[in-house]
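Appendix B. Worked example

We walk through a single record from start to finish. Start with the input: the chain for Carrier domain-containing protein, Streptomyces avermitilis, length 568.
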Amino acid sequence: MEEKSIEVLASGPDESARDKSRDSGPKAGIERDLAEVLADVMSVEQVSVDSHFFDDLGANSLVMAHFCARVRKRADLPSASMKDIYRHPTIRSLATGLADAAPTPVESSVPAPTEVVTPASTRQYLLCGTLQFIIFVGYCCLAGLVTGRGYEWVSAGSGLRNVYLRAVLFGGAGLVGLCIFPIAAKWILIGRWKSREFPIWGLTYLRFWTVKTLVHANPMIFFVGNPLYVLYLRALGARIGKGVTIFSRTIPVCTDLLTIGAGTVIRKDAFFLCYRAHAGRIQTGHVTLGRDVFVGEKTVLDIDTSMGDRAQLGHTSALQSGQVVPEDQRWHGSPAQRTEFDYLSIAPAACGTLRRAGYGLISVLQVFFLYVPLTVGGAYMLITEVPELRNLLGPDMVGFTSPTLYIDALVLSLVLFFGFIVLGLALLFTVPRLLSLMVKPDKVYPLYGLHYSAHRAIARMTNLKFFKWLLGDSSYIVHYLRGLGYDLSHVEQTGSNFGTEVQHETPYLTSVGSGTMIADGLSVINADFSSTSFRVSQASIGPHNFLGNNIAYPSGPRRVTTAFSRRR
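Next comes the structure step. The output line below is what the pipeline stores for this chain.
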């Protein structure tokens, strides 16, 4: 790599490149169109179809990124990415490569619209919005009423043991109700999802929106990465085989159109919603995954896509509608294209049905007898045992017009807020470190065991969004990440070295070199998963690099090129 200054953008290619471009004009067809776009970007009359983008024409990565953006705006040209540019560094080879990589169109199961799509009227828009507001208010009122009655019943208990038992019963019943209600609403309002399309703001859309909102608000989302989450999707109508592991918190909506074969693993931040919005309409369609499929992080599977048995889709990739990944093939990119890289490089481990069932049962017992009582009973104890809070919320509270009420509320809020910050940071900087002693780097462990529980606890605790939202986009974020366990070497402050959406599998195997700038949305993939096993590994980013938005950075030896670099 040779560094090239930004001044290259203002200057054209050297004279030899200009002479060469005059000697050989672009050919017809796609080569001619690509050459015209590149010539316009570089402000020259013409370019040769055999001239090397970097060595002959003097372009750099920013110029070619501009070229790719211009090509993608042309409906008559295939989409081009920077990966294509480096793989095919001439117009002739690029045209051939794009033509060979173009996906074969597959007939969509969504019927083509037979009528011109007209926008919804103001009356439809207002009616739908009003009904949505009524549903929202009704749900909140019902939840508030149940919570209030439940709190009164719990507070009527005498003694710690009685309060605990009442908290278990009320909290458990409330949790079960919150989990079952969206499932019942889906089957009552929708029945089975089918491949179709319907306009936004109509009554069909209102039913769709109601089910989507309830499904996404279901507390079962906290069981992602747990066999119980697979059971939840099956209850919603999804066809899911044995031994499937799903880490994505993005819940599919049209679940009857989702089919996942046995042994498949889906990493976090993968989108497979089985619907999309297009031209004022909602379109639903199938997403089909075969057996032993791997779907990477930050991937998108559009409707009417499928992957054959043992197929793989790499991180930050997308399957567009109609694309099919044949069995035993590995694809990557957006739109995805075939590659030879193996994303599933971890050995399997013994993880049978009994192990999965036991892990799910233990999770349920923890929720019902530990987390729920702590939440419900803890709130009760906080209100009853803290005199200031009891006086503030009790029947003898001062009137709303009294300044004392607002002063006391402000002081109490500040105490609780900063107390939570201090206590939370103390826990985050100590407890995960102790748990990390149970998980050794580069060692393969089976899923749904003690080591897996420790790893998941580390990931959940150290990825809390509250502190990233509080400290992100500021110079404090680097100190927070270093406290979690990041190896940040000597930090050259830029005012915002990380954004608010940085995440990782484990902070203790993450290192970032000095002078590196990270925009936002970095996901450090320093853990590998199969449907039966996992392994944590070191992920290192070198010094003086720039990483843009929403980067999925895997473990192992990597080198990130700087923003202004030129390939020789």
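Two observations about the output. Residues 87 and 94 are 8 Å apart (CA to CA). The chain is about 40% helix and 15% strand.
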